[in-house]
Amino acid sequence: MKTVLITGANKGIGFETAKQMAQLGYFVYLGSRNKIKGLDALNKLKSLGISNVELIEIDVTNIRSIKKAKQELENQTEVLDVLINNAGIAGAMPQNISAGNIENLRNVFETNFFGAVQTTQQLIDLLKKSNSPIIVNVSSELGSLTIHNSRQNPNFEIFDAYSSSKTALNAFTVLLANEFKNTNFKINSVSPGYTATDLNQYKGTQTVEQGAKFIVKYATLGIDGPTGGFFKEEEIPW
Question: Could you tell me the CATH number of the domain that includes residue 152?
Answer without folding.
Answer: 3.40.50.720
